[in-house]
Every structure is written in C-alpha cells, then in structure tokens.
Design brief:
Elements lengths: L2 E3 L3 E7 L3 H6 L14 E7 L5 E9 L4 E7 L3 H12 L5 E4 L3 E6 L10 E4 L8 E6 H4 L6 H10 L37 H10 L4 E7 L9 E4 L2 E10 L2 E7 H9 L4 E3 L2 E2 L1 E3 L9 H17 L1
Antiparallel strand pairs: 1-7, 2-5, 2-6, 3-4, 4-5, 7-9, 8-9, 10-13, 10-16, 11-12, 11-14, 12-13, 14-15
Length: 294
C-alpha cells in the first residue's frame, strides 16, 4: 500500500477571521471559493512575477488553512506572508506537530490522518495531514513517490524549476490549476496576466522519453546547440526544461534531439493543453485526413 511520509515537506498554518480574504489577495489560486476540506495548488510570487514558493493549500476549518510547502522554502514563505500581512487579522506559524504523507496507487485510508485530494491531478492520489508521531511510523521511501510523480509528468519545485527564477507558466502552473486568471489581483499578477494574454512561454517543462539511462542535469542537444536539460529522472522517463523554439527548429530541420548519445523523444504531458509545435502539426494533419475521409 503506497503511503509515503514526505519528509521533504513542511506545514505552515494560517488562521484568523481575515485569513481567507488576505490569502485570496496575495497568492495565485482562488481561496474565496474554497470550502472546508478543499485543496488548491498555488504559489506566492515576487512582485516581478517569479515564484518564491509553490505549495498545496488545504482549508482545515472555517478560519484555518494549511500550506503544504517544500521544507527548504518554509522559512522564506512564512517570512514573506508575515511581511504582506500588515494589519490583516491573520496569524502564521509553523505546524511542526503535523506532517504530510502521500497516498497513491492502491493506498487505503491512513489512520489518524485527514486526506485531501491532490488538486493538480487526480492520478497523483491524496495528501494526508497527520500527527508527526504517526507519520514517523510510515515509510519514508521518497523514491517511490518520486517515480510516481515523474511517471505522470508532474513538476516539482526545486528539482524541476528553480525558485526565484521561474515564472508560473514556465513551471506549468497554468496547466495544473495553480493560477486563477479570473480572480483579480495578487502579488505579481500583472506579469503573469501579461504572459497569459500577450505572449507565450519560451521555456516549458515537458516529458522526455529515454531509451537508456541518463543523469539528472544532462543536456538535450540538437547538433552543437543545447535545447534543454533533464531534471527529475525515473527509469526511462524524465522531466525536462526545454526551449520550445529551439526544439521546434531542430525538428523542422530534421536534427535529432540527443541526450548522453541517445536520441530522446519530447512530448507534452497528457494533462497539458500546450501541444509542442510538431505535435500540433501532427494533430492538425490528423484532423484534415479525418475530414477528407468523411
């Protein structure tokens, strides 16, 4: 039963009569529509629109929320949320007495835990918030969960994109429900909105299908030009940051994409709505052929 204690995650609690209003106005996801027991994927951005930290947000009560955040980002996120608080009636603290587990595959319920559906993708399973003492009795085999995540093409902050340098579109947050484009203002909103409506993301996180072993950090080459880099790798599948224009040009010129001396296949994740340029052209050709047959 795959239930893994995510020892690389930490929890921050937000509470108070103005918690919902405050959070709705500073983070990328919609907090106003959350009911008790709901989960959202979101981020707090720098004013320039780059990601300070992404997180899963759980509503645990009428005035209480939990941030499920990378442990390495917890202090920075706590500090920045407190900075933005001003006079709002909301308090923040680390929930060090609680821990996070992931239940996926054929996992059942976890004793003493409260489960929230992973809002990014149903196939990821559930996140379970439980007492720290109970979590210590679970498996801490992060490799099992990482293989599950990578197999679904889901990016991970810090591993697949660097904090402080990445826009939400570049981290595929726009594809995974991490940004609400209709809710109005939040920190960094103008930059993100401009990228959504006026430009396209030059870099994207995509899936890389590997015919053999390759190391994390290996460059994807088109001739003597780099078009991207592998990040998370599990077996024959990896997540890669790719310059879409360079990869498209290489494909148009018939130049193979190579990693560690092997030809690699790049594809948009199944959940993504941004087909790669050559996937889009194939899709359009299929539509024309079907139309001609009918």
């Amino acid at each position: 039963m795959p239930v893994v204690h995510l020892i690389d995650r930490a929890l921050i609690r937000a509470s108070g009569p103005e918690a919902a209003k405050f959070l709705h106005g500073v983070i990328t996801c919609n907090v106003a529509t959350m009911a008790v027991g709901d989960a959202r994927y979101g981020a707090l951005l720098f004013p320039q629109g780059k990601i300070l930290s992404d997180f899963l947000l759980y509503r645990e009560g009428e005035e209480g929320y939990l941030f499920d955040v990378p442990a390495e980002r917890a202090d920075d996120l706590l500090k920045r949320l407190t900075f933005h608080r001003l006079r709002a009636k909301v308090a923040f603290e680390k929930a060090d007495d609680r821990a996070v587990a992931a239940a996926f595959g054929d996992a059942g319920t976890v004793a003493e835990g409260r489960a929230f559906p992973d809002p990014r993708l149903a196939a990821l399973g559930q996140r379970v918030v439980l007492p720290k003492a109970a979590a210590d009795g679970l498996s801490a085999d992060l490799a099992a969960y990482e293989a599950h995540r990578i197999g679904l093409g889901i990016p991970k902050g810090g591993a697949d994109f660097p904090y402080g340098e990445t826009f939400p579109h570049e981290a595929d947050m726009d594809q995974l429900g991490g940004v609400d484009f209709k809710k109005g203002c939040y920190v960094g909103q103008e930059v993100v909105s401009r990228m959504e409506h006026r430009t396209t993301a030059r870099n994207r996180l995509v899936e890389a299908l590997l015919p053999g072993p390759a190391a994390e950090g290996a460059e994807i080459m088109a001739g003597d030009k780099s078009v991207g880099r592998l990040s998370s790798v599990a077996g024959g599948k990896a997540i890669a940051t790719v310059r879409l224009d360079r990869a498209t040009d290489a494909r148009a010129e018939g130049i193979p994409l190579m990693v560690a001396g092997m030809e690699v296949e790049l594809k948009a994740p199944d959940w993504a709505e941004f087909p790669l340029e050559w996937e889009r052209k194939v899709s359009e050709l299929d539509k024309k052929l079907k139309s001609a047959k009918t």
